[in-house]
Amino acid sequence: MAPTIELDGLDVQLGGRTILRTLTGVLNSRAIGLLGPNGAGKSTLINTLLGFHRPSKGSVRILGLDSHRDGKALRALVGYMPETDAFIAKMSGVRFVRYMAELSGLPPDQAMERAHEAFVYVGLGEARYRMVGTYSLGMKQLAKLAQAIVHGPKLLILDEPTNGLDPPARKRLLELVCEIREASDICLLLSSHLLRDVEETCDQVLILRDGRVASICDLAEERRGNRKFLEMETCGAEPAFAAALQSLGCECGLFGNGRMKVVLPDAVEIRDVYKVAAERGVQIRRMNHRRDSLQDIFLNAMEQSGGTSGRI
Amino acid sequence: MAVYKRRYNPYHGPLTPEQSRFLVLTRYALAELFRSRVFVLLLVLALVPTLFFAVYIFLVNNSAIQLVVQLRAAGGFAVESKFFFVLMVIQTQLSFLLSCWVCPTLVAGDLVNGALPLFLSRPFSRPEYVLGKCAAIALLLSAVTWVPGLLLFSLQAGLAKDGWIWTHLWMVVPIVFCSAVWILMLSLISLAVSAWVRLRIVATGVIFCAFLVPAGLGAIFNTIMNTYWGNLLNFSQLFSLILIKGFRLESELGGPVGLEQVPLFAAWIMMILVCVISLYILNARLRACEVVRG
Lengths: 312, 294
Hints:
By secondary structure, chain A is of the alpha/beta class. Chain A has two domains: about 5-220, 3-Layer(aba) Sandwich (Rossmann fold), CATH 3.40.50.300; about 225-290, 2-Layer Sandwich (Alpha-Beta Plaits).
């Protein structure tokens, strides 16, 4: 199967300035997050993926199709939810989504049916006959999502989908995004300033800085790695406890006052740690998996790519 | 799937042919226009002169009524090329008024709230967007230009005797061709202005200005420089020149004041130039995302 996104030395120049510089990398996860400080080139990359900008050098392939050469065929596979306002004010919600579905090639009756489905699905069923111009910001975001999924795309591109949403609306939208991802074989590209949004929905992250790739990180792999790294606070007989854990194959570090860090081998589960503690009469007062959060990954990427971390 | 089943489903059904997909835009554009009462009123008003011309044709071809009304004695003229020339001049001016209302309505709604990226992120190109909108405008303007012209021609052909149709069949060409030229130029100018200005009301004003201000400037230029080349800025007069040639009325009408001195090829070049400039503006303004230079 072709990678979701394949960047091959991609350069994009706009208005005489180079915005994206030699982007190279393969993103093959089904849910990709796009992160970067302001001006890093996230929106330019999305616009290039959609064929709105022509690469000045290199190329980008999405689901095996060249963004420039196979623009039309590619856009038939894509659903796009832009960051900014994008609607026709004097059109009812369902008619607007139907219009977009027909432009994607659905016959009128199918488009109508899918528009109703999409509107009900995103939770705007009651408001579907109202003019889009009268919608609140949250409703407009949902209407944009409805038009992006109405034609059943293979890749859903979401540019800052939770912008301006209150916490319940944000939670609902992210749940929808996760649901869409799970319900079919659809791929997802989510650009957001909110690291938590990306963390909750994506498996792989592309971090941009100054138009360059700062990092490509596999979140799923990180999560798996984090599960085997424990931080504990214990009380009583720590050296013996540590020795017993080492005899199981764990790596232990003692930091005084009962604090210790443990790396578990694949064969050892957390319940084995509890068992050893019970045998040695050690109290485990606190136990955490190390959470190497996306924020750490992001800040690391910013530091490694040079300079101070950018504003996000 | 029933709408109450709230679950995302991919679409695996049939798709419409790509070549005809721009007509979706045309269909929606026309549907939106016909919801506007102002538009319907304008369209009806634009067809009123055709009604008068139809009545005139009926009167001219009815000998009994002619005897009573004495139409020719009252200054009426025969239904010949001049009749259709006058019809076309009136209808094209009305079509101009109609386009001033229609074009900004068609384009501004898409541009003012940023809907264009949604169109262009689908398997749909910018030329197709322009084609779809132009098709909507062309259909509407056709309904007030060459379609009534041909209907009146058919009415006259049906009522007249002595093989009138065969001796006047050539007039079908200028009726259709000149209207097509006018519609093309008007559509492109109006779309370009609407795409440039974006605000509907302002765009309507600017379209008026795009026709009237250059004409006024041309007249001033003519007066000051004692020349006739300023007429090239008067698009209505340029079109009248093409109509006069088309209806073979050079000797009869002599053209509007001063216009007889402007060569036909210059009029054509000017109209083509205006269309090219309009296309350039459309290319620059109809973009999914704007690039800030510098």
